[in-house]
Amino acid sequence: MPENASAGTSTISIDRLTLRLSGLSESDGRRLAELIGEGLAAQTSAIQTADVSKVRTSLTARPGSAIRGLAEEAVADILRQLQRSA
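RESULT FIELD:
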């Protein structure tokens, strides 16, 4: 167990987060990535140990969609995939 992890906690390591976006500005894309990272960090207790080399998700932004809503969709999909892989 890593030194900074205590019993009952999970550690997530994301080596790279790549977003291919169309229709969003660079700053909105950065904000989306930050929100996805924060969302995953907040859900560490829901993630079972899995060694997954790649997770891919595809989202479609609807006109007027909020960046936060897209991030929540991405986090939910990533968590589903990780739970299936555990």
